[in-house]
Each structure stands twice: as structure tokens, then as C-alpha cells.
Write a structure and sequence with these properties.
0% strand, 79% helix, de novo design (two linked rop proteins), 7 helices, mainly alpha, single chain, rod-shaped
Length: 193
């Protein structure tokens, strides 16, 4: 009888030990995923900082050549200031989308002035900004992929029990504004003279 009790106690201790190790594994995996998400967000921040640092150079280079477009330059500067001051992912996304629109208008101004289009400094800054925009796009895509993975791990059973026990929260996707989702219209019809 005593050996049966010892066997049951050892089985119970083994099951309890396995359960604790299983909880530790799930907890550590959720921590790893949360840290990957936070790292991906910081990578977006690095690219946004690069973008924010390039904008004053572009504005000052354009400012001297374009006296009539002060409103466009002021909108770029204002949008940059808002983007730099944004803190949460949602605020940053909205501010960065406004900055992207303002930069698009600035690039349109540059295109309409032949002297600006031929300026090497402006072309180099424009190329650097374009490269940075591509990096930002890839960083956002990675961030959203990691968010999807993290959310899946948080929501599947039995991870959801461990996640709620330890207070893990869902992260928000970096999403485009409605005007970014609009399909641009292009007229490529051939007109006869």
C-alpha cells in the first residue's frame, strides 16, 4: 500500500512538473514574440527618424528656389513636427500618413520646376527619401507579420489561458489610412489629334 501511494505521489509530481514546464515554455514564447514585435516597432522608428532627418535638408534646399510654394513647405514642416511628436503606434501612423501626403505635394512642386528637377542635391535627397520610404514599407510589413503571429499565439488554446493569466495584451496593426487605400486612376488612352 505504501509503495502504491509513493507511485501515485511520484506520478502526481511528474504531471505537476510537466505542467509547470509547459507553462514556462508558453510564457517564454509569448515574451519572445512580444519582444520581436517591440523590436520591429523600433526598426520602424529608426527609419522614421532617418526620414525626419532628411526632410529639413530637402525643405531648405527647395526653399531657396521656390518662393511661391511657401504653403507646401509649411505643410511639410508642420506634418514633420507632428510625426516627430507622435508617441503611440496609432498616432504615429496617422502623423506619418499626413507627412507622406505633404511630401507627395512637395515632390509634385519639385517636378513642376525645371531648375529644381536638375538640382543634384534635391535629386539626391529625393532618392534618399524614396529609399527610406521603401525601408519604412518593409519594416511596417515585418511589424504587421509579427503582430499577426503574436496575436495568433495569444488567441490559440491553451496559450490564451496563459496569456490572460499573465496579462498579455494584443498589439495593434500598423494600418493605412482610407485615402492611402484609394486606387489611383490612370488615363493611358491614346488620343488622336
Amino acid at each position: 500500500m505504501a509503495t502504491l501511494i509513493l507511485i501515485l505521489i511520484s506520478i502526481l509530481i511528474s504531471v505537476l512538473g510537466f505542467f509547470i514546464l509547459w507553462m514556462i515554455f508558453i510564457y517564454n514564447r509569448l515574451i519572445s514574440l512580444r519582444n520581436e514585435v517591440q523590436n520591429a516597432w523600433k526598426q520602424i522608428d529608426v527609419q522614421l527618424k532617418r526620414r525626419h532627418d532628411l526632410i529639413p535638408n530637402l525643405v531648405s534646399t527647395v526653399k531657396g528656389a521656390v518662393e511661391f510654394e511657401q504653403d507646401t513647405l509649411e505643410k511639410v514642416i508642420s506634418a514633420r513636427t507632428k510625426a516627430v511628436g507622435a508617441t503611440s503606434p496609432q498616432e504615429k501612423a496617422a502623423a506619418e500618413n499626413m507627412l507622406t501626403q505633404a511630401l507627395g505635394k512637395l515632390f509634385a512642386v519639385v517636378e513642376s520646376y525645371p531648375s529644381l528637377k536638375s538640382n543634384e542635391n534635391i535629386m539626391q535627397l529625393q532618392e534618399e527619401l524614396t529609399t527610406t520610404e521603401n525601408r519604412i514599407g518593409f519594416a511596417r510589413q515585418l511589424y504587421n507579420d509579427l503582430i499577426a503571429n503574436f496575436r495568433t499565439k495569444l488567441e490559440i488554446f491553451p496559450n490564451n489561458m496563459i496569456a490572460s493569466l499573465f496579462g498579455f495584451q494584443r498589439e495593434e496593426y500598423y494600418s493605412a489610412e482610407e485615402y492611402d487605400k484609394a486606387v489611383p486612376m490612370a488615363d493611358i488612352s491614346i488620343r488622336k489629334k
